[in-house]
Amino acid sequence: MIPWERLDTADVPGSGDTLTLHRHGRDYSIRVNGLELMNSRMHGSEESLAELACEGLEPVSGVRVLIGGLGMGFTVAAALKHLGPDSRVVVAEIVPAVVGWNRGVLSGLAGRPLEDPRVEVRENDVALVMNEARRDYDAILLDVDNGPDGLTREGNDALYTAAGLERARRALRPGGVLAVWSAGPDESFTKRFKKAGFAVRETRVRARAGNKGGHHTIWLGRVGRNS
Fold it and tell me: Which of 65, 80, 181, 194 could form a disulfide with 143 if both were Cys (CB 3.0 to 4.6 A apart)?
């Protein structure tokens, strides 16, 4: 049996957590403190996150989308397929090494989405990017950590609090969508999401492409047109 090979290690800013990048043949894995955070074989739900969030945006001019969490690039690549030529996708990734991996050894997995001229990468906390925005985005996609019940830095939890949801709502244009990926369901988060003033839809999607693998959870929250 071919063993997993560790390719690189990176510290997560603002925490004591460590990310490691591993390879096994054609497969790649990113782990946090030894626990697998993502695997290149399981990206169907990340693609579903983008497809659901960007539904109907392709014919709209001047679309702006914010993606929190770069991962292995599958969410960004899927979003680009559903957006027009004059759209803009801002990717907020707090770990510089993850950006480097996506420009290097991982670049071919999702078709080199960071080379698309519509993409801007910001090596920053997505919460800070949202703080700077006022009705700037038609969609915000949060694929950070494991969702509301995270594995990595405690600061990620703030994204899913009432204050974090209000921050996202202020950053969205009227009628905009906040899409949240999670490894599993979270009833308390669903209630909190609705209480924050979003019209919320929760759906379960398959982890792997081709309707395979386990299930992950995606929430879609839309703000009112008159917000």
Answer: 181
